[in-house]
Amino acid sequence: MSANHDSDKKVINFPPKFRRNCNIAQYLVSIVLGGINANMGLVLSLQVIVIGDLLSGKESFHINSFEASWFGSLPFIFISTSSILAGFLQEKFGRKGTILFAHVPVIAGFVCLYLTDSVVLLYSSAISFGLFAGFNQGASMTYAGEVFQPELRGTLTSIPGIFFNIGFIVVFLLSTIYPWRKIVFICTVLPIVTFICTFILPESPLWLVQQKKNKKAKKALKWLRGWTTEEYIQDEWDALINQVNAKTRKNDSKLPECQNLARSDTGPEEELTVFQTCSLFFGSEVQRPMYLVLTYFLGVLCCCLMPFKPMLIEVMSEMKIKFDPHLFLFISALLQFAGACSFSIVLRRYGKRVLTIFGFTVSIATCYGLAAYIMLGIQKSWIPLVLLSINSFIATFGLITIPWILISEVFPLRFRGIASGVSAALSNGIMFLTIKTYVNFKTLLGLPGSIIMYGTIAVFSLLYLYLNLPETEGKTLEDIELGFQQKKANAQHQNPKVEEVQQN
Protein backbone atom coordinates (compact mmCIF):
# COMPACT_ATOMS: atom_id res chain seq x y z
CA MET A 1 0.00 0.00 0.00
CA SER A 2 1.42 3.31 -0.99
CA ALA A 3 1.47 6.02 1.62
CA ASN A 4 3.34 9.29 2.07
CA HIS A 5 6.35 9.71 4.31
CA ASP A 6 4.42 11.73 6.89
CA SER A 7 2.00 8.89 7.48
CA ASP A 8 4.90 6.45 7.82
CA LYS A 9 6.38 8.60 10.56
CA LYS A 10 3.08 8.91 12.43
CA VAL A 11 2.65 5.14 12.57
CA ILE A 12 5.66 4.98 14.90
CA ASN A 13 3.67 6.83 17.59
CA PHE A 14 0.74 4.42 17.43
CA PRO A 15 0.14 1.98 20.32
CA PRO A 16 2.32 -1.18 20.30
CA LYS A 17 -0.82 -3.31 19.95
CA PHE A 18 -1.67 -1.58 16.67
CA ARG A 19 1.83 -2.12 15.29
CA ARG A 20 1.81 -5.78 16.36
CA ASN A 21 -1.60 -6.51 14.84
CA CYS A 22 -0.66 -4.56 11.73
CA ASN A 23 2.41 -6.73 11.20
CA ILE A 24 0.49 -9.94 11.96
CA ALA A 25 -2.16 -9.15 9.34
CA GLN A 26 0.43 -8.45 6.65
CA TYR A 27 2.46 -11.56 7.50
CA LEU A 28 -0.72 -13.64 7.23
CA VAL A 29 -1.31 -12.25 3.75
CA SER A 30 2.29 -13.05 2.81
CA ILE A 31 1.95 -16.63 4.08
CA VAL A 32 -1.22 -17.15 2.01
CA LEU A 33 0.55 -15.80 -1.08
CA GLY A 34 3.46 -18.08 -0.22
CA GLY A 35 1.15 -21.08 -0.09
CA ILE A 36 -0.16 -20.19 -3.54
CA ASN A 37 3.40 -19.90 -4.83
CA ALA A 38 4.24 -23.29 -3.30
CA ASN A 39 1.77 -24.78 -5.79
CA MET A 40 4.13 -23.77 -8.59
CA GLY A 41 7.04 -25.39 -6.76
CA LEU A 42 5.01 -28.60 -6.56
CA VAL A 43 4.21 -28.43 -10.28
CA LEU A 44 7.78 -27.90 -11.51
CA SER A 45 9.27 -30.55 -9.24
CA LEU A 46 6.53 -33.03 -10.16
CA GLN A 47 7.48 -32.62 -13.81
CA VAL A 48 10.99 -33.87 -13.05
CA ILE A 49 9.64 -36.94 -11.21
CA VAL A 50 6.92 -37.74 -13.76
CA ILE A 51 9.22 -37.36 -16.77
CA GLY A 52 11.80 -39.63 -15.15
CA ASP A 53 9.28 -42.40 -14.44
CA LEU A 54 7.43 -42.19 -17.77
CA LEU A 55 10.70 -42.25 -19.73
CA SER A 56 11.89 -45.32 -17.82
CA GLY A 57 8.93 -47.38 -19.04
CA LYS A 58 7.95 -48.55 -15.55
CA GLU A 59 4.25 -48.11 -16.40
CA SER A 60 2.10 -49.34 -19.26
CA PHE A 61 1.82 -45.72 -20.35
CA HIS A 62 5.19 -44.19 -21.21
CA ILE A 63 6.58 -41.37 -23.34
CA ASN A 64 9.64 -40.67 -25.49
CA SER A 65 12.14 -37.82 -25.20
CA PHE A 66 10.32 -35.63 -27.72
CA GLU A 67 7.04 -35.91 -25.80
CA ALA A 68 8.88 -35.30 -22.53
CA SER A 69 10.40 -32.07 -23.86
CA TRP A 70 6.97 -30.76 -24.78
CA PHE A 71 5.53 -31.73 -21.40
CA GLY A 72 8.35 -29.80 -19.74
CA SER A 73 8.08 -26.68 -21.89
CA LEU A 74 4.33 -26.37 -22.59
CA PRO A 75 3.61 -24.57 -19.28
CA PHE A 76 5.87 -21.66 -20.21
CA ILE A 77 4.05 -21.07 -23.49
CA PHE A 78 0.70 -20.78 -21.72
CA ILE A 79 2.17 -18.79 -18.84
CA SER A 80 3.03 -16.11 -21.40
CA THR A 81 -0.40 -15.97 -23.01
CA SER A 82 -2.37 -16.20 -19.77
CA SER A 83 -0.20 -13.54 -18.11
CA ILE A 84 -1.35 -10.98 -20.67
CA LEU A 85 -4.98 -12.00 -20.16
CA ALA A 86 -4.45 -11.84 -16.39
CA GLY A 87 -3.42 -8.19 -16.70
CA PHE A 88 -6.84 -7.30 -18.09
CA LEU A 89 -8.61 -9.58 -15.59
CA GLN A 90 -6.89 -7.72 -12.75
CA GLU A 91 -8.29 -4.40 -13.91
CA LYS A 92 -11.78 -5.84 -14.45
CA PHE A 93 -12.22 -8.28 -11.55
CA GLY A 94 -9.53 -7.16 -9.13
CA ARG A 95 -6.28 -8.65 -7.86
CA LYS A 96 -7.96 -11.06 -5.44
CA GLY A 97 -10.54 -12.13 -8.03
CA THR A 98 -7.81 -13.03 -10.52
CA ILE A 99 -5.88 -15.02 -7.90
CA LEU A 100 -9.02 -16.98 -7.00
CA PHE A 101 -9.68 -17.73 -10.67
CA ALA A 102 -6.10 -19.01 -11.05
CA HIS A 103 -6.88 -21.91 -8.69
CA VAL A 104 -9.32 -23.49 -11.15
CA PRO A 105 -6.71 -24.57 -13.75
CA VAL A 106 -4.16 -25.79 -11.19
CA ILE A 107 -6.69 -28.10 -9.52
CA ALA A 108 -7.79 -29.31 -12.96
CA GLY A 109 -4.13 -29.87 -13.86
CA PHE A 110 -3.52 -32.09 -10.84
CA VAL A 111 -6.64 -34.12 -11.66
CA CYS A 112 -5.54 -34.59 -15.29
CA LEU A 113 -2.03 -35.58 -14.23
CA TYR A 114 -3.33 -38.11 -11.70
CA LEU A 115 -5.60 -39.71 -14.32
CA THR A 116 -3.00 -39.56 -17.10
CA ASP A 117 -3.02 -42.58 -19.39
CA SER A 118 -2.42 -40.74 -22.67
CA VAL A 119 -0.34 -37.91 -24.09
CA VAL A 120 -3.51 -35.80 -24.41
CA LEU A 121 -4.16 -35.84 -20.66
CA LEU A 122 -0.46 -35.32 -19.95
CA TYR A 123 -0.31 -32.24 -22.17
CA SER A 124 -3.63 -31.01 -20.75
CA SER A 125 -2.15 -31.02 -17.27
CA ALA A 126 0.89 -29.07 -18.49
CA ILE A 127 -1.35 -26.48 -20.17
CA SER A 128 -3.45 -26.15 -17.00
CA PHE A 129 -0.35 -25.60 -14.89
CA GLY A 130 0.80 -22.90 -17.30
CA LEU A 131 -2.57 -21.13 -17.11
CA PHE A 132 -2.40 -21.20 -13.31
CA ALA A 133 1.08 -19.70 -13.19
CA GLY A 134 0.21 -17.02 -15.74
CA PHE A 135 -2.98 -15.91 -13.98
CA ASN A 136 -1.35 -15.97 -10.56
CA GLN A 137 2.12 -14.46 -11.06
CA GLY A 138 1.29 -10.90 -12.01
CA ALA A 139 -1.84 -10.71 -9.85
CA SER A 140 -0.09 -11.95 -6.70
CA MET A 141 2.85 -9.56 -7.07
CA THR A 142 0.59 -6.60 -7.85
CA TYR A 143 -1.58 -7.44 -4.84
CA ALA A 144 1.47 -7.75 -2.59
CA GLY A 145 2.90 -4.45 -3.78
CA GLU A 146 -0.36 -2.64 -3.06
CA VAL A 147 -1.30 -4.07 0.35
CA PHE A 148 2.07 -4.20 2.15
CA GLN A 149 3.52 -1.14 3.88
CA PRO A 150 6.77 0.21 2.39
CA GLU A 151 8.97 -0.82 5.32
CA LEU A 152 7.73 -4.44 5.10
CA ARG A 153 7.09 -4.80 1.37
CA GLY A 154 10.51 -6.12 0.39
CA THR A 155 10.67 -8.75 3.13
CA LEU A 156 7.07 -9.90 2.78
CA THR A 157 7.18 -10.17 -1.02
CA SER A 158 10.27 -12.39 -0.68
CA ILE A 159 8.47 -14.93 1.55
CA PRO A 160 6.57 -16.56 -1.37
CA GLY A 161 9.98 -17.45 -2.84
CA ILE A 162 10.71 -19.47 0.30
CA PHE A 163 7.43 -21.37 -0.08
CA PHE A 164 8.21 -21.99 -3.76
CA ASN A 165 11.36 -23.87 -2.74
CA ILE A 166 9.49 -25.72 0.01
CA GLY A 167 7.34 -27.16 -2.78
CA PHE A 168 10.45 -28.66 -4.38
CA ILE A 169 11.70 -30.10 -1.09
CA VAL A 170 8.33 -31.70 -0.27
CA VAL A 171 7.99 -33.41 -3.66
CA PHE A 172 11.57 -34.69 -3.71
CA LEU A 173 11.13 -36.09 -0.20
CA LEU A 174 7.80 -37.74 -1.06
CA SER A 175 9.37 -39.26 -4.18
CA THR A 176 11.59 -41.40 -1.95
CA ILE A 177 8.48 -42.92 -0.32
CA TYR A 178 5.54 -42.91 -2.75
CA PRO A 179 4.97 -43.43 -6.49
CA TRP A 180 4.35 -40.27 -8.49
CA ARG A 181 0.56 -40.68 -8.83
CA LYS A 182 0.13 -40.78 -5.06
CA ILE A 183 2.32 -37.68 -4.76
CA VAL A 184 0.06 -35.89 -7.26
CA PHE A 185 -2.99 -36.90 -5.20
CA ILE A 186 -1.40 -35.51 -2.02
CA CYS A 187 -0.38 -32.27 -3.77
CA THR A 188 -3.97 -31.62 -4.88
CA VAL A 189 -4.85 -30.72 -1.29
CA LEU A 190 -2.71 -27.55 -1.26
CA PRO A 191 -4.53 -25.51 -3.97
CA ILE A 192 -7.87 -26.30 -2.29
CA VAL A 193 -6.52 -24.94 1.00
CA THR A 194 -5.00 -21.83 -0.59
CA PHE A 195 -8.25 -21.11 -2.47
CA ILE A 196 -10.15 -21.03 0.83
CA CYS A 197 -7.49 -18.85 2.47
CA THR A 198 -7.44 -16.42 -0.47
CA PHE A 199 -11.22 -16.11 -0.31
CA ILE A 200 -10.86 -14.82 3.27
CA LEU A 201 -8.36 -12.09 2.32
CA PRO A 202 -9.64 -8.59 1.42
CA GLU A 203 -9.32 -7.10 -2.04
CA SER A 204 -6.60 -4.50 -2.70
CA PRO A 205 -7.83 -1.15 -1.27
CA LEU A 206 -6.00 0.67 -4.06
CA TRP A 207 -7.96 -1.20 -6.74
CA LEU A 208 -11.23 -0.69 -4.85
CA VAL A 209 -10.66 3.08 -4.71
CA GLN A 210 -10.01 3.08 -8.46
CA GLN A 211 -13.38 1.37 -8.88
CA LYS A 212 -15.06 4.06 -6.70
CA LYS A 213 -15.79 1.50 -3.97
CA ASN A 214 -14.46 3.62 -1.14
CA LYS A 215 -16.51 1.98 1.62
CA LYS A 216 -15.16 -1.48 0.77
CA ALA A 217 -11.67 -0.05 0.31
CA LYS A 218 -11.63 1.47 3.80
CA LYS A 219 -12.90 -1.80 5.29
CA ALA A 220 -10.16 -3.72 3.46
CA LEU A 221 -7.48 -1.29 4.66
CA LYS A 222 -8.62 -1.66 8.27
CA TRP A 223 -8.35 -5.46 7.89
CA LEU A 224 -4.86 -5.23 6.40
CA ARG A 225 -3.67 -2.94 9.19
CA GLY A 226 -4.55 -5.39 11.94
CA TRP A 227 -8.37 -5.32 12.02
CA THR A 228 -8.13 -1.84 13.48
CA THR A 229 -10.45 1.17 13.71
CA GLU A 230 -10.74 4.03 11.25
CA GLU A 231 -8.71 6.53 13.28
CA TYR A 232 -5.51 4.48 12.97
CA ILE A 233 -5.63 4.25 9.16
CA GLN A 234 -6.88 7.78 8.43
CA ASP A 235 -3.47 9.17 7.40
CA GLU A 236 -2.78 6.27 5.06
CA TRP A 237 -6.33 6.46 3.72
CA ASP A 238 -5.95 10.16 2.91
CA ALA A 239 -2.64 9.48 1.17
CA LEU A 240 -4.28 6.69 -0.84
CA ILE A 241 -7.14 8.92 -1.99
CA ASN A 242 -4.71 11.71 -2.90
CA GLN A 243 -2.56 9.30 -4.90
CA VAL A 244 -5.50 8.00 -6.96
CA ASN A 245 -6.89 11.51 -7.51
CA ALA A 246 -3.48 12.86 -8.53
CA LYS A 247 -3.04 10.03 -11.01
CA THR A 248 -6.49 10.68 -12.47
CA ARG A 249 -5.71 14.38 -12.91
CA LYS A 250 -2.39 13.54 -14.56
CA ASN A 251 -4.03 11.15 -17.03
CA ASP A 252 -6.68 13.77 -17.79
CA SER A 253 -3.97 16.27 -18.68
CA LYS A 254 -2.70 13.90 -21.38
CA LEU A 255 -6.10 13.69 -23.09
CA PRO A 256 -7.48 16.09 -25.73
CA GLU A 257 -8.83 19.31 -24.25
CA CYS A 258 -12.37 18.63 -25.50
CA GLN A 259 -12.51 15.34 -23.60
CA ASN A 260 -11.27 16.97 -20.39
CA LEU A 261 -13.99 19.62 -20.73
CA ALA A 262 -16.56 16.90 -21.25
CA ARG A 263 -15.42 15.21 -18.07
CA SER A 264 -15.67 18.40 -16.05
CA ASP A 265 -19.19 19.00 -17.36
CA THR A 266 -20.56 15.53 -16.87
CA GLY A 267 -18.79 14.75 -13.62
CA PRO A 268 -18.24 10.97 -13.77
CA GLU A 269 -14.95 9.73 -15.19
CA GLU A 270 -15.19 8.28 -18.70
CA GLU A 271 -13.25 5.28 -19.92
CA LEU A 272 -10.32 5.94 -22.22
CA THR A 273 -10.56 4.75 -25.80
CA VAL A 274 -8.39 1.86 -26.95
CA PHE A 275 -6.14 4.26 -28.88
CA GLN A 276 -5.68 6.56 -25.87
CA THR A 277 -4.97 3.61 -23.59
CA CYS A 278 -2.35 2.23 -25.99
CA SER A 279 -0.72 5.65 -26.34
CA LEU A 280 -0.29 5.93 -22.59
CA PHE A 281 0.76 2.28 -22.20
CA PHE A 282 3.53 2.57 -24.79
CA GLY A 283 4.78 5.80 -23.26
CA SER A 284 8.08 5.97 -21.41
CA GLU A 285 6.44 5.82 -17.95
CA VAL A 286 5.48 2.19 -18.61
CA GLN A 287 8.17 1.14 -21.07
CA ARG A 288 11.21 2.31 -19.07
CA PRO A 289 10.42 0.09 -16.05
CA MET A 290 9.40 -2.73 -18.40
CA TYR A 291 12.81 -2.66 -20.12
CA LEU A 292 14.38 -2.76 -16.67
CA VAL A 293 12.37 -5.81 -15.56
CA LEU A 294 12.91 -7.75 -18.81
CA THR A 295 16.65 -7.07 -18.81
CA TYR A 296 16.80 -8.31 -15.23
CA PHE A 297 14.93 -11.50 -16.14
CA LEU A 298 17.15 -12.24 -19.14
CA GLY A 299 20.30 -11.76 -17.09
CA VAL A 300 19.01 -13.96 -14.26
CA LEU A 301 18.01 -16.79 -16.60
CA CYS A 302 21.49 -16.78 -18.13
CA CYS A 303 23.72 -16.38 -15.08
CA CYS A 304 21.65 -18.89 -13.05
CA LEU A 305 22.01 -21.35 -15.96
CA MET A 306 18.27 -21.95 -16.15
CA PRO A 307 18.44 -23.17 -19.80
CA PHE A 308 20.08 -26.47 -18.84
CA LYS A 309 18.52 -26.99 -15.39
CA PRO A 310 15.82 -29.35 -16.78
CA MET A 311 18.66 -31.46 -18.24
CA LEU A 312 20.99 -31.17 -15.26
CA ILE A 313 21.39 -34.94 -14.94
CA GLU A 314 22.66 -35.15 -18.52
CA VAL A 315 24.95 -32.14 -17.99
CA MET A 316 26.46 -33.70 -14.87
CA SER A 317 27.12 -36.88 -16.84
CA GLU A 318 28.83 -34.91 -19.61
CA MET A 319 31.00 -33.18 -17.01
CA LYS A 320 31.88 -36.67 -15.70
CA ILE A 321 30.81 -35.76 -12.18
CA LYS A 322 30.92 -38.85 -9.98
CA PHE A 323 27.99 -38.09 -7.71
CA ASP A 324 24.38 -39.29 -7.52
CA PRO A 325 22.47 -36.68 -9.60
CA HIS A 326 19.17 -37.34 -7.79
CA LEU A 327 20.82 -36.70 -4.44
CA PHE A 328 22.31 -33.49 -5.83
CA LEU A 329 18.82 -32.37 -6.94
CA PHE A 330 17.65 -32.68 -3.34
CA ILE A 331 20.74 -30.87 -2.02
CA SER A 332 20.22 -28.15 -4.62
CA ALA A 333 16.61 -27.71 -3.45
CA LEU A 334 17.82 -27.32 0.15
CA LEU A 335 20.41 -24.74 -0.94
CA GLN A 336 17.76 -22.79 -2.84
CA PHE A 337 15.55 -22.83 0.25
CA ALA A 338 18.46 -21.56 2.35
CA GLY A 339 19.14 -18.83 -0.20
CA ALA A 340 15.52 -17.68 -0.19
CA CYS A 341 15.44 -17.56 3.63
CA SER A 342 18.72 -15.63 3.77
CA PHE A 343 17.47 -13.15 1.18
CA SER A 344 14.34 -12.32 3.20
CA ILE A 345 16.55 -11.67 6.25
CA VAL A 346 19.12 -9.34 4.64
CA LEU A 347 16.91 -7.53 2.12
CA ARG A 348 15.85 -4.68 4.40
CA ARG A 349 19.44 -4.05 5.48
CA TYR A 350 21.21 -4.07 2.11
CA GLY A 351 18.43 -3.32 -0.38
CA LYS A 352 17.75 -4.73 -3.83
CA ARG A 353 20.47 -2.87 -5.70
CA VAL A 354 23.42 -4.13 -3.61
CA LEU A 355 22.09 -7.71 -3.57
CA THR A 356 21.57 -7.56 -7.34
CA ILE A 357 25.14 -6.51 -8.07
CA PHE A 358 26.53 -9.07 -5.62
CA GLY A 359 24.34 -11.91 -6.92
CA PHE A 360 25.09 -11.26 -10.59
CA THR A 361 28.83 -11.02 -9.94
CA VAL A 362 29.00 -14.33 -8.06
CA SER A 363 26.75 -16.17 -10.53
CA ILE A 364 28.71 -14.94 -13.54
CA ALA A 365 31.91 -16.12 -11.85
CA THR A 366 30.43 -19.62 -11.42
CA CYS A 367 29.50 -19.67 -15.13
CA TYR A 368 33.03 -18.89 -16.26
CA GLY A 369 34.40 -21.30 -13.64
CA LEU A 370 32.29 -24.19 -14.98
CA ALA A 371 33.31 -23.40 -18.56
CA ALA A 372 36.99 -23.34 -17.57
CA TYR A 373 36.62 -26.66 -15.73
CA ILE A 374 35.25 -28.36 -18.86
CA MET A 375 37.71 -26.76 -21.29
CA LEU A 376 40.76 -27.59 -19.16
CA GLY A 377 39.66 -31.22 -18.75
CA ILE A 378 40.03 -31.22 -14.97
CA GLN A 379 38.87 -34.47 -13.35
CA LYS A 380 37.91 -33.22 -9.89
CA SER A 381 34.19 -33.78 -9.31
CA TRP A 382 34.07 -31.55 -6.24
CA ILE A 383 34.90 -28.43 -8.28
CA PRO A 384 31.76 -28.38 -10.49
CA LEU A 385 29.66 -29.58 -7.54
CA VAL A 386 30.79 -26.58 -5.49
CA LEU A 387 30.24 -24.18 -8.39
CA LEU A 388 26.76 -25.57 -9.13
CA SER A 389 25.90 -25.45 -5.42
CA ILE A 390 26.96 -21.79 -5.16
CA ASN A 391 24.96 -21.01 -8.28
CA SER A 392 21.86 -22.70 -6.80
CA PHE A 393 22.17 -20.75 -3.53
CA ILE A 394 22.77 -17.38 -5.20
CA ALA A 395 19.86 -17.92 -7.61
CA THR A 396 17.35 -17.66 -4.76
CA PHE A 397 19.46 -15.20 -2.76
CA GLY A 398 17.56 -12.42 -4.49
CA LEU A 399 18.23 -12.89 -8.20
CA ILE A 400 15.10 -14.88 -9.05
CA THR A 401 12.89 -13.03 -6.55
CA ILE A 402 13.87 -9.38 -7.07
CA PRO A 403 12.47 -8.98 -10.62
CA TRP A 404 9.10 -10.26 -9.39
CA ILE A 405 9.20 -7.74 -6.54
CA LEU A 406 10.05 -5.00 -9.04
CA ILE A 407 6.99 -5.94 -11.11
CA SER A 408 4.84 -5.07 -8.09
CA GLU A 409 6.61 -1.73 -7.55
CA VAL A 410 7.86 0.03 -10.67
CA PHE A 411 4.80 0.42 -12.90
CA PRO A 412 2.46 3.43 -12.71
CA LEU A 413 -0.84 2.92 -10.92
CA ARG A 414 -3.16 3.13 -13.92
CA PHE A 415 -1.40 0.35 -15.84
CA ARG A 416 0.00 -1.70 -12.96
CA GLY A 417 -2.25 -4.70 -13.57
CA ILE A 418 -1.83 -4.81 -17.35
CA ALA A 419 1.90 -3.99 -17.25
CA SER A 420 2.59 -6.67 -14.64
CA GLY A 421 0.73 -9.22 -16.78
CA VAL A 422 2.60 -8.26 -19.95
CA SER A 423 5.94 -8.30 -18.10
CA ALA A 424 5.23 -11.75 -16.67
CA ALA A 425 4.20 -12.98 -20.13
CA LEU A 426 7.34 -11.67 -21.84
CA SER A 427 9.56 -12.96 -19.03
CA ASN A 428 8.15 -16.47 -19.33
CA GLY A 429 8.43 -16.21 -23.10
CA ILE A 430 12.14 -15.47 -22.65
CA MET A 431 12.40 -18.47 -20.32
CA PHE A 432 10.73 -20.73 -22.90
CA LEU A 433 13.10 -19.55 -25.65
CA THR A 434 16.25 -19.95 -23.57
CA ILE A 435 15.29 -23.48 -22.49
CA LYS A 436 14.18 -24.55 -25.98
CA THR A 437 17.30 -23.17 -27.71
CA TYR A 438 19.77 -24.66 -25.23
CA VAL A 439 20.24 -27.83 -27.29
CA ASN A 440 20.82 -25.75 -30.44
CA PHE A 441 23.46 -23.56 -28.79
CA LYS A 442 25.09 -26.58 -27.21
CA THR A 443 25.35 -28.25 -30.64
CA LEU A 444 26.75 -25.06 -32.16
CA LEU A 445 29.10 -23.90 -29.40
CA GLY A 446 29.56 -26.96 -27.22
CA LEU A 447 28.71 -27.08 -23.52
CA PRO A 448 31.52 -24.76 -22.36
CA GLY A 449 30.86 -22.33 -25.22
CA SER A 450 27.16 -22.11 -24.40
CA ILE A 451 27.93 -21.49 -20.71
CA ILE A 452 30.36 -18.71 -21.67
CA MET A 453 27.65 -17.19 -23.88
CA TYR A 454 25.14 -17.21 -21.00
CA GLY A 455 27.70 -15.63 -18.68
CA THR A 456 28.50 -12.91 -21.21
CA ILE A 457 24.82 -12.03 -21.70
CA ALA A 458 24.56 -11.74 -17.91
CA VAL A 459 27.55 -9.35 -17.88
CA PHE A 460 25.76 -6.94 -20.25
CA SER A 461 22.58 -7.23 -18.17
CA LEU A 462 24.56 -6.40 -15.04
CA LEU A 463 26.03 -3.28 -16.68
CA TYR A 464 22.55 -2.09 -17.68
CA LEU A 465 21.16 -2.71 -14.19
CA TYR A 466 24.13 -0.97 -12.57
CA LEU A 467 23.32 2.16 -14.57
CA ASN A 468 19.51 2.06 -14.39
CA LEU A 469 18.28 0.04 -11.39
CA PRO A 470 16.99 2.37 -8.63
CA GLU A 471 16.81 1.36 -4.99
CA THR A 472 13.12 0.76 -4.23
CA GLU A 473 13.44 -0.88 -0.83
CA GLY A 474 11.54 1.02 1.87
CA LYS A 475 10.04 3.52 -0.60
CA THR A 476 6.35 4.07 -1.23
CA LEU A 477 4.90 3.12 -4.61
CA GLU A 478 4.23 6.80 -5.26
CA ASP A 479 7.87 7.74 -4.61
CA ILE A 480 9.08 4.96 -6.92
CA GLU A 481 6.79 6.18 -9.69
CA LEU A 482 7.97 9.76 -9.18
CA GLY A 483 11.56 8.54 -9.41
CA PHE A 484 10.99 7.14 -12.91
CA GLN A 485 9.22 10.35 -13.91
CA GLN A 486 12.21 12.36 -12.68
CA LYS A 487 14.55 10.23 -14.80
CA LYS A 488 12.37 10.95 -17.81
CA ALA A 489 12.45 14.69 -17.07
CA ASN A 490 16.24 14.64 -16.69
CA ALA A 491 16.64 12.79 -19.99
CA GLN A 492 14.45 15.33 -21.77
CA HIS A 493 16.39 18.19 -20.19
CA GLN A 494 19.66 16.73 -21.44
CA ASN A 495 18.18 16.22 -24.92
CA PRO A 496 15.94 19.21 -25.77
CA LYS A 497 15.18 17.79 -29.23
CA VAL A 498 13.33 14.86 -27.66
CA GLU A 499 11.23 17.19 -25.55
CA GLU A 500 10.45 19.37 -28.59
CA VAL A 501 9.28 16.37 -30.62
CA GLN A 502 7.04 15.15 -27.77
CA GLN A 503 5.48 18.59 -27.36
CA ASN A 504 4.74 18.76 -31.08
From TrEMBL:
SUPFAM superfamilies: MFS general substrate transporter. The keyword Membrane applies. Gene3D superfamilies: MFS general substrate transporter like domains. Keywords: Membrane, Transmembrane, Transmembrane helix. Residues 27-473 form the Major facilitator superfamily (MFS) profile domain. GO terms for molecular function: transmembrane transporter activity. InterPro entries: MFS_dom, MFS_sugar_transport-like, MFS_trans_sf, MFS_Trehalose_Transporter. It comes from the Eukaryota. GO terms for cellular component: membrane. It is a multi-pass membrane protein. The chain crosses the membrane at residues 27-50, 70-89, 98-116, 122-144, 156-177, 183-209, 290-308, 328-347, 354-376, 382-406, 418-439, 445-467. This is Major facilitator superfamily (MFS) profile domain-containing protein.
